[in-house]
Automatic annotation (TrEMBL):
Organism phylogeny: Bacteria, Pseudomonadati, Pseudomonadota, Alphaproteobacteria, Hyphomicrobiales
UniProt record, GO biological process: lipid A biosynthetic process; lipopolysaccharide core region biosynthetic process
Tagged with keyword Nucleotide-binding: yes
One Pfam family per UniProt: LpxK
Top-level taxon of origin: Bacteria
Enzyme Commission number: 2.7.1.130
Protein name: Tetraacyldisaccharide 4'-kinase
Binding site for ATP: T52, L53, G54, G55, D56, G57, K58, T59
Job description of the protein: Transfers the gamma-phosphate of ATP to the 4'-position of a tetraacyldisaccharide 1-phosphate intermediate (termed DS-1-P) to form tetraacyldisaccharide 1,4'-bis-phosphate (lipid IVA).
Amino acid sequence: MRAPGFWRRGFPSPLARALAPLGAVYGAAAGARLARPAPRAELPVIVVGGLTLGGDGKTPTALALAALLRELGEAPAFSTRGYGGAAGRPPFRVDPERHTAAEAGDEALLLARSAPTFAGVDRLAAARVAQAAGASVLILDDGLHSRRIDADLALVVVDAGHGAGNGLCPPAGPLRAPLLRQLAIVDAVVVIGAGAAGDAIAALARSSGKPVFRAAVRPDPEAARRLAGAPVLAFAGIARPEKFFATLEETGARLVGRRAFPDHHRFSRRDLFALDRQARTLGARLVTTEKDAARCPGVGSVLPIVIRFQQEEALRAALAGALTAAA
């Protein structure tokens, strides 16, 4: 799915206003779901949710949190809903050497290269399987809005350049639930990048007593060094491909072409042939994201990214506090 352009505007367009009644119905249902009680797991649970439908930075944030938890002496594991074949199955441990993106989901494959990862809709069952496998804490990549499991620490991630979009719920806008309802149920807000839209949400969160952790996306230094000055044809099938293109430009690579596909796009042979032919014509190197590479392994080069927190010590303290309270 590719998000409509009118979702991204800072104010509702005429089309968004026409769809607003449907968005209000969606928002009411989503808000009611946020208010319902959720079962608790036997191990601490940290939930990472996105403010909007895709592209906020949940997965890299979850990966960064896992690194901080390991520094605290914990053994983190991930739980993700998965896509395709994973959605209807009991939770299973993802093996990046055996499973494909069609079986487990691209995000699950990416997470599994960092820590044990369990894909499946039943998050409580995933928590039991993860604990039996030796995990001391479970990180949910997404799962804030489904309320399938209660959180000991709930974080919502905001893309500062996008914020709340036009402030409406689908189909009128991108919000997963009304903004204030989302802020009410989380323990803290993570704002990635810079932008007035993100600043506004940070101010709103602070006014309601919620901590705000600022963060930035950084390209992997070694990959960036290899790409500096090189002609590149960039392609991405993620929610906000323009973010990837901008990060790629930060490396000093020369973007001679860029191709954007819908989020979670399944690349066909025709797609890959056309990309290869275009790259050869341009005399450029194909470069994509880690998530896209999970769906087309071996095609082109990959630019990994990492999340760097500005208030890392404060976030580490919040994680430690949540673990202590859950004990």
